[in-house]
Design brief:
The protein is of the alpha/beta class. Helix content is about 35%, strand content about 30%. It contains 7 helices and 9 strands. The strands form 2 sheets. A 7-stranded mixed β-sheet has the order 5-4-3-6-7-9-8. The chain is globular, with a radius of gyration of 19 Å.
Length: about 230
C-alpha cells in the first residue's frame, strides 16, 4: 500500500513504519538524556575533561565544534580560553543548561539541540572538532568521524577523547560493550585522511565515591593538511 503526503509525494507503508520506528527511537534517546540531565545536575562535572584541557592548553583562539557536548563543560572552558565554540547535543535540556552556565560564566557559546548523527555542520568551517566520549558502534562511529573531517578547514584538527576497549576488562566506568569502545587501529583507520599527531592509550583516575580506580582512555589528534 502507498500513502500520499500532503505535499503530493508518496510513501510506502513499510517506509512509513520504518520512519515511525526511527522517530520513536530518536525521541526515546532524547527523552532519556533529557531526564538524566534534569535529575542529576552536572552529570559530567563542571570543569573540562583533563585531556581536553591538557591538549588545548595555550592553543591560539580558533573556531571549535564540540559534537555531543552535553551540558557544555568543555565548550564553556574552551570559550573562556578565547575560542569561538559551537556545541551540539541531542538533549535540549542539556543545551539549555549549558546556555545558562555560559551566560553565568560571561562567555558566548552557540548551543544547538540536535542529533549529531543527523545534524550536518557547515563544510570546512571549523579549526578544531572535539569528540569527547562519543561512544558509538562501528557504522555510526565511522559516519560521525567522516562528518567531523568534512567540517574541518585546512590546517584544522580533530581531537577525540574516548573510552579504550581495554577499559572493558582492565578499567573502570564506560560502556560495558566492546563494540562501543575504541582502539588505536580503529581511530587511525577512521581518520586515515588526516596526519596523526597523537594516538595514545592513557589512564584517567576516577574517584566519584561509588567508583575508585583508573579508567583506560584513548586520545587521538589528527590534522587536516589541505
Amino acid at each position: 500500500m502507498v500513502l500520499s503526503t500532503k505535499y503530493g509525494s508518496t510513501l510506502d507503508t513499510s517506509e512509513l513504519r520504518t520512519a515511525s520506528l526511527t522517530y520513536a527511537l530518536l525521541m526515546t534517546q532524547r527523552d532519556l538524556w533529557n531526564e538524566r540531565y534534569r535529575e542529576r545536575g552536572a552529570v559530567w562535572g563542571v570543569g573540562p575533561n583533563q585531556f581536553v584541557a591538557e591538549r588545548m592548553e595555550g592553543m591560539t583562539p580558533r573556531r571549535v565544534l564540540d559534537l555531543g557536548s552535553g551540558q557544555g563543560r568543555n565548550a564553556i572552558w574552551m570559550a573562556q580560553q578565547g575560542h569561538r565554540v559551537t556545541a551540539v547535543d541531542i538533549s535540549d535540556v542539556a543545551t539549555g543548561q549549558g546556555q545558562e552556565m555560559a551566560e553565568k560564566a560571561g562567555v558566548g557559546v552557540e548551543f544547538i539541540a540536535a542529533d549529531i548523527g543527523e545534524w550536518e555542520p557547515p563544510h570546512a568551517a571549523f579549526d578544531l572538532v572535539l569528540l569527547a566520549y562519543i561512544q558509538l558502534p562501528e557504522s555510526s562511529r565511522c559516519a560521525l568521524h567522516v562528518k567531523a573531517m568534512r567540517a574541518l578547514a585546512p590546517g584544522g584538527s580533530v581531537l577525540v577523547v574516548a573510552h579504550h576497549r581495554d577499559n572493558l576488562e582492565n578499567g573502570v566506568g564506560g560502556p560495558p560493550l566492546a563494540e562501543m569502545l575504541f582502539t588505536e587501529d580503529e581511530l587511525a583507520s577512521d581518520f586515515a585522511g588526516l596526519d596523526i599527531v597523537e594516538n595514545s592509550r592513557v589512564l584517567r583516575h576516577v574517584d566519584n565515591g561509588d567508583v575508585v580506580g583508573d579508567a583506560i582512555d584513548i586520545v587521538f589528534i589528527g590534522e587536516k593538511l589541505s
